């Protein structure tokens, strides 16, 4: 959904998408890191899962937007 909006309204869609998703990924790490009464190992796994998902999804979408 975000990629569609960025592709439609942004001048440099790939750059805008990349910047937005990096910021959103960083914000998504706040949840696991701020979770009270949660084991450190669980926090680490959640952070790694968020970063892995971002690393898999963001680059191909950004490349596709760059070729529009």
From TrEMBL:
InterPro entries according to UniProt: DUF6069
Source species of the chain: Actinokineospora diospyrosa
UniProt KW keywords: Membrane, Transmembrane, Transmembrane helix
Transmembrane segments: 45-62
Pfam families: DUF6069
Name of the protein: Uncharacterized protein
């Amino acid at each position: 959904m975000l990629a569609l909006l960025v592709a439609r309204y942004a001048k440099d869609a790939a750059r805008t998408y990349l910047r937005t998703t990096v910021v959103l990924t960083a914000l998504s790490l706040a949840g696991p890191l701020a979770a009270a009464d949660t084991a450190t190992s669980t926090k680490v796994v959640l952070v790694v899962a968020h970063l892995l998902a971002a690393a898999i999804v963001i680059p191909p979408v950004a490349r596709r937007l760059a070729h529009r």
